[in-house]
Write a structure and sequence with these properties.
Layout lengths: L1 H24 L28 H10 L4 H14 L3 H11 L1
């Protein structure tokens, strides 16, 4: 009896996944965002960013030669995901 329950659960999950994928493909399913809202960068701005602790990141930022667009991208990511004030201060200094 448990096997039947697990099979039915698997079928239900699969059907839900297929339905959601189809709704998204047809653009019938989209995130509700306030007018003018900007989605935060989902991916790390640079490879290994999420693995760096604050001190390592601060050292890296001092040595890295980043252009303004890179700094802004890192700043958006930091604000959306971690919000570490020392990191945001250094990023602000790099821009200004």
């Amino acid at each position: 009896m448990d096997t039947v329950k697990w099979m039915l659960a698997g079928i239900a999950v699969g059907a839900a996944a297929v339905t959601l994928r189809e709704l998204q493909r047809r653009r019938l399913l989209s995130p509700a965002l306030p007018t003018g809202a900007v989605l935060a960068d989902v991916e790390e701005p640079v490879l290994g960013y999420d693995g760096m602790d604050q001190e390592t990141l601060l050292e890296w930022l001092e040595d890295a030669e980043l252009d303004d667009s890179d700094v802004r991208r890192i700043m958006r990511y930091e604000e959306a995901n971690f919000g570490r004030e020392p990191v945001l201060e250094v990023l602000g200094e790099l821009l200004g």
